[in-house]
């Protein structure tokens, strides 16, 4: 991309933690911040050009600031142990008022090279939020960036929530060290897997006040919030165009929960033998999908597939799907669910179901915005065009 030539790269460090620091913290809360290294400064006019190329030309008047981009390293938890994670911290420059904090969560990734911290090669568009006045976070997630040697805990609710919450804490710590003024507003936005991760972070914050965080509003697009419904769809025997998702979840749970079952328990050959190499971080979604059977009866081990269809079969796996679905929690902060009605990757019904459940359980402020005719790939842009003015309208009271 030609615009990369216009990005001003820097190698000088920003808000590096002093290794000889001896001051006793005033707050007993663990400091998750490790380091933040400035990797780029992007001028306002370049961001306006990027906005046009990304389909957001109507918001050019709101792109008011140059932005500084940092690679943020922080600590989180993986399988009960401390683990370093990474993400981008994008800071608007020369703001005269305190900025809100916005954490943006990306969709499913198979390539290590797609991690946000491989910026500028992985420019996502989320960076544009910073130029409108938000201190913006773009977490890599566990399994990418500095933690790429960990198998990504795909659709694991606890790890998904904590990797965002701990980055928010680390960013607030960094902002304090750098005297970056923040207001009290915290927004969460994500699409696809990022919609699920956003909901997991929202739940983690709302269920655990000890984090000391409060969500101002959350926007979640096309996430697989009800994994039990996904299982029901898979067991109909109908072809599914994204078998990569199914293989990803099974490998994730097999690793994250230390089941350590042979892949032949789940998959037929030749797929069981192919999968480790397909998921080594060098293959994209299309190659993985084209290398796996799209019919579940051909992809899965027949004995495993038969057990999935039995009420009492594969109980441990089914319980994990229940535990990682949003079945018994109701959001208390303003929440918008977005979903394309023609989505064949993550079915629209998952958002409809969770919305109906939230409303029936008394959610105080939740809305479902249907993107008519929208597919999984086409619905993110209209979602963001709707989200931007919504969160701007809520950035008050600080």
Automatic annotation (TrEMBL):
GO molecular function: triacylglycerol lipase activity
GO biological process, alphabetically ordered: lipid catabolic process
Name this protein carries in UniProt: Alpha/beta hydrolase
The organism of origin for this protein: Adhaeribacter arboris
